[in-house]
């Protein structure tokens, strides 16, 4: 028995980690002291489990697929588990990012009361374990069980502060859209099984669907998983739910949970449905591009830091979808090498986004902890009181802005390189459209840079805009555990940015096991120093040399200036063109920084502005910006549902005789049908 | 290719760019003065200014963070790096494969982000204003720039600058209509990115209009000198990049040191003409209102897209 399990090392290991997380969930419930066990034991142990999962995931990428049947659950429906390179890659993502977040959580929840912390610890670890089971599941039944456990545990985490009405309604919206998505996924599995009743993934893989039914299954999967990933127009829950949760949970949701949706898409579309068509890819591209631009444009006008980060998650999901869409287009037209490259770009960005978005949410959490504020308009000058957090946040901000030599740039570079493969496509329209998507990506990444200049400049730089909340006193820097968590993820940003070729080869293995096609021979010559997506004379990138040169020349400049300059420095008040009166309220606020965006992209937003009259003695300027989707989609649907339910409500008269009459009519109708 | 000779040339070229960049600035200022019927300053004035600034005492705001003091060096380093990627005199650059055109655009973005952050560091009204405007222009210019560069990349089937320039320089006078559109788009981006008229005026400190100058208000002495120098290198880099892409003739091919004098002469002639042209543009055009900048740059973007589509059409 033990030898058999040893042979199944990555699978049994990953299973053990998931079970360990479940055990830790129960452990957090033990009430000892001021929730000592939950905080000092469960979270650090959870982080260790995450590290182990990273190792097992990495191992699984390089091994053939393994499967296992767990005799659990209802009769004749055992849990099928399987680990293959794709699942291994996502398990690695889950484990490594969760490790950082768990360590951080050990420090972050220091102020919680024991009762609340026990519940948070329970849901937190159930959430982690359910995500691991989603990735391990090998039949539709266990997949849906894990998927729903994930949705529910995260719902309970979102409504941690359930006494706040806004949090409750955010949680409700999340639960609603999560279930719309789940229904769609369920229907997708139904379509794929084609009425055979066998829901193991092996059976679904073997079933050959008619093109029409394959497209239906694709659409159901795309929108079902898209609801979880935050595609427009199903994104409305994301900017409400992610900020409502405590920061480590926001980091888990944005960093990892959204990625399980990407996993689901890749698994179902490439693996289970198979036979990818380019028309699907075009749909994914169009929706991905719209999602990306929508996300970044709305992020730019936010002044709540966590909401802003949530909108950026929408944007990054759009970027991932651009890669996926291009990959489907290339595979659909029969260009597997280019398709493999785009798929790798998408998966790489998935990993990168998990790391830097996790880091940024943790940074936002530390700010919230230290100052008690989430509104950028009230921050300022935090680099002086929280230098360490400021340093880690800067790494995250540069990474998400796709600046070399950090990780965001690598995956966006790979996405650009995929778009530049467009000339091999024979269809003229598609060929000229692909570079346009690349242009939109360029726009989105430049807008992201602007947005993070805003975030960093307003939160960390400048002068404090207000004296901080008296309840929290002066802002202190993040504590030890919080810093270790952020440092781990920041190191991830650097490693993923500096050694991209190793990850390229790993992802190539994932793509090859999934689609049967790998990158071109020349691209596989990439080594630790050089990243080559197609061929060396076509494109290459070496972040290490890049970093070395930029550090060398900057240092050389510094030394030369130091050598030849007398070095006299005087400190004075800021000059500011000689204006004598300066207060910290004269600085740009977050809203002011977004003003050019509101001006240029005005039609995208639904704005209500109230300008004061010229002779108003107490002038007030108000600006209210809302998402247009509420007005053309959500509110009409809500009204329709209310209308229908009010009509159905007519059935309920509250008199027992009438209900008995209903039963009688139903019985009669059934008799007629059964006859 | 001889690697050590290549590295020697690489270092030589980037030092040449760093040293020659203020000269181009001086030449443009001189041309502009002539065109505007003023008596022109010396050609070497930018060097004198740099020397003067390096001799002054630095005045730094009391609440400046380390970021504020690092930024001038980072800017200078970024521009120096850019000068190492662009084939100015020859295509023999061993460092160039480490960063292609997309990375080049990203280097400029890195410099922009750091200068905007430094501008917001002191917490004055002007700093934030300048940073906000600079990022506005940046996000509009970046896609346009990439589109123009992608047109060239599609023609040559590569994003390596050295490969692109090699291919374009040795073509048999084939005419690429797509490249013409891209050239106009690139010129417009060059004006916007280097804070020139019609987007920004490098000589004004008028609060309603300044963009780049608003960001560097708090800098003085050596820091200001480094920033001014970096600005000169950036303009030089952009102009030589445009020349290498759209009029590459005369550039020395890899490994051939004998062609270098000719390449130097060709570069000088081309830069003299281009500098005079830039001065002419700055004289005959007025500065646009800030919110006309999106129109200007979206035109550039559309031209870039047109160039790319034209290339696809012509090829098909």
In a few lines, what is going on in this structure?
Chain A is mostly helical and 675 residues long. Chain A contains 25 helices and 5 strands. Chain A has a domain of 44 residues.
Describe the structure.
The complex is a heterodimer of chains A (675) and B (316). Chain A is mainly α. Chain A has a domain at 631-674. Helix content of chain A is 69%, strand content 4%. Chain A contains 25 helices and 5 strands. Chain A has helices spanning 2-7, 9-27, 36-61, 85-108, 114-136, 140-158, 165-193, 201-206, 211-229, 238-244, 247-273, 278-300, 305-332, 336-371, 382-385, 387-400, 407-419, 428-459, 480-498, 500-515, 543-564, 590-593, 595-600, 628-649, 656-674; strands at residues 66-70, 79-83, 569-572, 606-610, 622-626. In chain A, the strands form 2 sheets. Chain A has a two-stranded antiparallel sheet. In chain A, strands 4-5 form a two-stranded antiparallel ribbon. In chain A, a hairpin with an 8-residue loop joins strand 1 (66-70) and strand 2. In chain A, helix 2 (9-27) packs antiparallel against helix 3 (36-61). The termini of chain A are far apart. The model of chain A is unreliable at 469-473 (pLDDT under 50). Chain B has 316 residues and is an all-alpha fold. Chain B has one domain. Chain B is built from 11 helices and 1 strand, in the order ααβααααααααα. Chain B has helices spanning 3-35, 45-55, 66-85, 101-121, 125-156, 161-169, 177-193, 212-215, 221-246, 260-284, 293-315, and one strand at residues 58-61. In chain B, helix 4 (101-121) runs antiparallel to helix 5. The longest helix of chain B has 33 residues, at 3-35. At the A-B interface, helix 17, helix 18, helix 21, strand 3 and helix 23 of A face strand 1, helix 3, helix 4, helix 5 and helix 11 of B. Strand 3 of chain A pairs parallel with strand 1 of chain B, so a sheet runs across the interface.
């Amino acid at each position: 028995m033990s030898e058999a399990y040893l042979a199944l090392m990555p699978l049994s290991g990953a299973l053990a980690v998931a079970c360990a997380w479940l055990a830790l969930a129960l452990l957090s419930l033990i009430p000892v002291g001021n929730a000592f066990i939950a905080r000092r034991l469960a979270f650090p142990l959870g982080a260790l489990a995450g590290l182990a999962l990273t190792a097992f995931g990495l191992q699984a990428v390089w091994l053939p697929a393994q499967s296992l049947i767990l005799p659990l659950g209802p009769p004749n429906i055992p849990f099928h588990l399987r680990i293959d390179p794709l699942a291994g890659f996502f398990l690695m993502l889950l484990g490594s990012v969760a490790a950082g977040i768990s360590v951080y959580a050990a420090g972050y929840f220091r102020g919680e009361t024991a009762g609340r912390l026990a519940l948070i610890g329970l849901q937190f670890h159930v959430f982690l374990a359910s995500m691991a089971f989603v990735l391990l599941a090998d039949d539709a039944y266990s997949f849906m069980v894990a998927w729903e456990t994930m949705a529910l545990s995260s719902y309970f985490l979102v409504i941690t502060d359930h006494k706040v009405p806004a949090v409750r309604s955010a949680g409700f919206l999340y639960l609603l859209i999560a279930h719309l998505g789940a229904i769609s996924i369920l229907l997708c599995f139904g379509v794929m099984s084609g009425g055979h009743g066998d829901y193991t993934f092996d059976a679904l893989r073997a079933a050959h669907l008619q093109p029409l039914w394959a497209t239906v299954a694709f659409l159901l999967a795309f929108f079902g998983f898209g609801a979880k990933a935050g595609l427009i127009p199903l994104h409305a829950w994301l900017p409400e739910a992610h900020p409502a949760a405590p920061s480590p949970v926001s980091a888990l949701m944005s960093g990892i949970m959204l990625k399980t949706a990407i996993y689901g898409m890749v698994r179902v579309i490439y693996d289970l449905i198979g036979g990818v068509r380019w028309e699907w890819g075009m749909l994914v591209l169009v929706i991905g591009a719209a999602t990306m631009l929508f996300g970044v444009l709305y992020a730019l006008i936010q002044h709540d830091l966590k909401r802003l980060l949530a909108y950026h998650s929408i944007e990054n999901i759009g970027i991932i979808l651009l890669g996926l869409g291009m990959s489907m287009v290339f595979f659909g037209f029969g260009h597997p090498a280019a398709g493999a490259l785009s798929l790798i770009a998408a998966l790489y960005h998935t990993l990168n986004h998990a790391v830097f978005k996790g880091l940024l949410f943790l940074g936002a959490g530390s700010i919230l902890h230290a100052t008690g504020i989430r509104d950028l308009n009230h921050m300022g000058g935090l680099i002086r009181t929280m230098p360490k957090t400021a340093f880690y946040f800067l790494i995250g901000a540069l990474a998400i802005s796709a600046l070399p030599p950090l990780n965001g740039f690598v995956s966006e570079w790979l996405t650009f390189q995929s778009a530049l493969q467009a000339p091999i496509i024979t269809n003229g329209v598609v060929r000229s459209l692909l570079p346009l998507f690349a242009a939109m990506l360029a726009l989105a990444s430049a807008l992201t840079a602007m947005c993070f200049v805003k975030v960093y400049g307003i939160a960390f730089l400048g002068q404090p805009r207000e004296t901080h909340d008296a309840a929290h006193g002066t802002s202190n820097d993040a504590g030890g555990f919080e810093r270790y968590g952020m440092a781990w993820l920041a190191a991830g940003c650097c490693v993923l940015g500096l050694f991209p070729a190793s990850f390229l080869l790993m992802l190539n293995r994932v793509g090859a096991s999934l689609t049967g096609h790998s990158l071109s021979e020349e691209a596989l010559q990439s080594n630790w120093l050089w990243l080559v997506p197609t061929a060396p004379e076509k494109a290459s990138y070496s972040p290490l040399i890049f970093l070395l040169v930029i550090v060398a020349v900057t240092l050389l400049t510094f030394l030369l200036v130091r050598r030849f300059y007398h070095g006299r420095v005087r400190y004075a008040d800021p000059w500011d063109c000689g204006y004598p009166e300066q207060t910290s309220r004269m600085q740009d606020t977050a809203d002011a920084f977004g003003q050019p965006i509101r001006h240029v992209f005005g039609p995208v937003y639904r704005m209500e502005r109230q300008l004061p009259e010229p002779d108003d003695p107490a002038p007030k300027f108000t600006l209210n910006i809302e998402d247009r989707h509420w007005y053309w989609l959500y509110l009409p649907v809500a009204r329709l549902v209310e209308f229908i339910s009010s009509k159905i409500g007519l059935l309920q008269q509250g008199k027992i005789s009438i209900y008995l009459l209903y039963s009688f009519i139903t019985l009669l109708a059934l008799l007629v049908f059964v006859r | 290719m001889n690697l050590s000779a290549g590295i020697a040339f690489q270092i030589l070229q980037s030092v040449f760019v760093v040293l020659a960049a203020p000269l181009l600035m001086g030449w443009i200022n001189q041309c502009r003065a002539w065109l505007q019927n003023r008596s022109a300053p010396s050609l070497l004035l930018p060097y004198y200014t740099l020397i003067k600034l390096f001799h002054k005492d630095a005045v730094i705001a009391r609440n400046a963070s380390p970021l504020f003091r690092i930024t001038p060096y980072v800017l200078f380093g970024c521009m120096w790096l850019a000068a190492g990627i662009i084939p100015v005199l020859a295509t023999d650059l061993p460092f160039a494969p480490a960063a292609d055109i997309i990375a080049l655009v990203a280097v400029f973005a890195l410099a922009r982000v750091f200068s905007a952050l430094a501008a917001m560091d002191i917490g004055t009204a002007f700093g934030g204003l300048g940073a906000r405007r600079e990022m506005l222009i940046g996000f509009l210019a970046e896609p346009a720039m990439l589109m123009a560069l992608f047109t060239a990349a599609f023609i040559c089937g590569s994003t390596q600058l050295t490969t692109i320039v090699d291919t374009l320089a040795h073509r048999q006078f084939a005419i690429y209509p797509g490249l013409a559109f891209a050239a106009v788009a690139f010129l417009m981006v060059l004006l916007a990115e280097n804070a020139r008229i019609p987007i920004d005026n490098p000589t004004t400190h008028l609060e309603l209009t300044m963009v780049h100058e608003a960001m560097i208000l708090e800098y003085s002495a050596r820091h200001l000198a480094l920033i001014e120098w970096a600005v000169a290198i950036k303009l030089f880099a952009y102009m030589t990049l445009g020349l290498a892409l759209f009029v590459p003739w005369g550039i020395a091919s890899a490994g051939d040191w004998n062609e270098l004098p000719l390449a130097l002469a060709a570069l000088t002639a081309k830069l003299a003409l281009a500098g005079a042209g830039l001065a002419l543009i700055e004289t005959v055009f007025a500065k646009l209102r800030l919110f006309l900048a999106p129109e200007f740059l979206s035109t550039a973007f559309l031209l870039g897209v047109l160039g790319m589509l034209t290339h696809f059409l012509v090829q098909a």
